[in-house]
Each structure stands twice: as C-alpha cells, then as structure tokens.
Design goal:
The protein is α/β, with parallel strands linked by helices. Helices cover 38% and strands 16% of the residues.
C-alpha cells in the first residue's frame, strides 16, 4: 500500500515519511520526497542471519509471505546464511493464507532436521502460523527454534491469539531497549499507558516520532513548500522517543537514501507467556543484550 501512496507523493512533490514499512524498494527508488523512520529489511533480516550463525544453527527452514516486505526479508537473509555456511530451504506463502499444516509437516519430515524456523509474516496468517507450528510439534521446540519477523509478535493481540505457542519465540523490537529509554520515551510511554491502559508498541512510538520529525522540519523550513521541506528533512537532527534522528543522503547502497540509518533494532526471545516485548530478554546484538545466553532452548 505504501508503495502506491509514495508514487502519488512523488508525482505531487509532497514529502512523505514511511512508518512501519520495511521493503527495501521504498527508499531504493531514490525519490527525494520519501523518507523512512522505520528500519528496513536490510537492517533487520541481516541481524537474524548473524544471530543464527552466532547461536550455532546449521539448518534453517524459511517461510516468507509473498509481499514486498516478506520478499525483501528473504532476499536479505539468504546471502547472510550463505556467508555463514548455513543450509536452508525456502517456501513462499500467500499473505492471506491461514492454513500451514502441509508446509509444516513437510518441514518436520526433512532430513537432516531443521534446527530453526524463520518466518517473515506480518499479515493475517502470522498468528495461525505460530499456533499451528507449535500444535504440530515443530517449533518452538527443544529441537527447532522459531522466529517471526514483521511486527505481529509485538502487537497487543499476540498473546490473545497464540497463547502458549508464543513462549520461546524470537522477534524484533524496533525501538530503544528499556535500559536506553530517554526522557521523551518515558514520557510517551507514561502518557500512552494512562490513556489506553496498555504499553505502547515500538511502532506507536515510531508513529509519534514521525509526526514530530515532520513538525520540526516545518518549523525550521518556515514553510510547507515541498522542496523547502525536503531540504529541511535532510538536515534533521533531533532526539525523540527512538533516539537521535538523522537521514542519510547517500545512495550507497541504494536503499540508504533518506533512511534513518540508526533506526533501533533488537532481537528478543519471550521466556514467559503474556510477556510484553519490552520486558522480553534481549539476545542480540550482544552489545545491548541483557542476558548471558544467546538462545534459550525450550525445556531448559
């Protein structure tokens, strides 16, 4: 959807800020009007690949939804797995699919056994995929770990939909870890909890920050003219709820153009049912990890 929206913005010369959309082609197209505060798949999927290697996984089953985001995740991950000598099998699925028994049973019978199940799924099938994988005894299990990338696993509805199946699942948080929260992060979380009686997702903070980034650019440009705003956005340097925002003007690699290159990304692994993502142990990258282990195997 955003890819269509940005074409309209580009044609009209109106700046647009991409939030919670990860496909590489969004910024790779090089449109001067398009800026992104979200991380992209190059910043996310590569972390999964490096973590899998560091954690010692050797055979990985990969399932991706056939969307720009899912395909970008696949395209970034596979070369990283190749680099580390990790073997894999890849299956694509319709983003509207909700039945995965056949694919999971095939993965279960694979020899040698898969020791990790990586899923790039953000659409309707994400919760059934996690639930069915657990019910069928594939992952997360003592033999096979599991991750879901795309956002569903940090949504407030996650635990209501998957229950016990979510324990030991890995996912990413695209915000600052609690230990790194600044005053603006803390203020937003407190206000959100007071109004909605629940902790905001990292994407909620991301959306709020995006509005403030735009407001800051308008204030500095003293104008809402498209070209003036683009120039102001390129000079953005402001600390908000997800850290210090600046935008790259480099085209190397192509997706770096107008990308918030320091967009925070951390891999977490749930060790309790009903655990909020912000409270889950951070396992990667190791410089911000808050547990000694690299991976918690179910049953340990």
């Amino acid at each position: 959807m955003f890819l269509a929206e940005m074409e309209v913005a580009h044609k009209a010369g109106i700046p647009i800020i991409a939030v919670d959309v990860w496909a590489l082609k969004i910024t790779a197209k090089g449109y001067p009007e398009v800026f992104r505060v979200a991380p992209n798949q190059a910043l996310i999927a590569a972390k999964y690949g490096d973590w899998m290697a560091a954690a010692g996984f050797k055979n990985v089953a990969v399932m991706f939804e056939k969307t720009d985001g899912g395909q970008s995740g696949r395209d970034v991950l596979l070369p990283v797995l190749d680099k580390h000598g990790i073997k894999y099998e890849v299956v694509g699925a319709d983003p509207s699919a909700t039945e995965f028994t056949a694919q999971i049973e095939r993965f279960k019978s694979h020899q040698p056994p898969f020791d990790f199940f990586m899923t790039f799924y953000s659409e309707a099938g994400a919760y059934p995929l996690v639930s069915q994988s657990h019910t069928l005894g594939f992952a997360p299990t003592a033999r096979t770990g599991m991750a879901n990338s795309g956002g569903p696993a940090v949504d407030p509805t996650f635990w209501k939909n998957v229950g016990q199946a979510g324990k030991y699942l890995l996912t990413e948080i695209v915000g600052l870890p609690k230990a790194a929260w600044n005053d603006k992060t803390k203020a937003f979380v407190a206000a959100f909890k007071k109004k909605y009686n629940q902790t905001p997702s990292p994407q909620a903070i991301e959306n709020y920050d995006a509005m403030l980034v735009l407001a800051d650019a308008i204030q500095r440009a003293k104008s809402t003219d498209g070209k003036a705003l683009i120039a102001a956005l390129e000079k953005t340097d402001i600390v908000l709820g997800r850290g210090r925002y600046t935008f790259s003007t480099s085209h190397e690699p192509d997706w770096a153009y107008h990308q918030f290159m320091s967009a925070p990304v951390a891999l977490v692994q749930y060790d309790k049912v009903d655990q909020e993502a912000e409270d889950a142990p951070i396992i990667w990258p190791r410089d911000i990890a808050d547990v000694k282990y690299m991976y918690l195997k179910p049953g340990q």
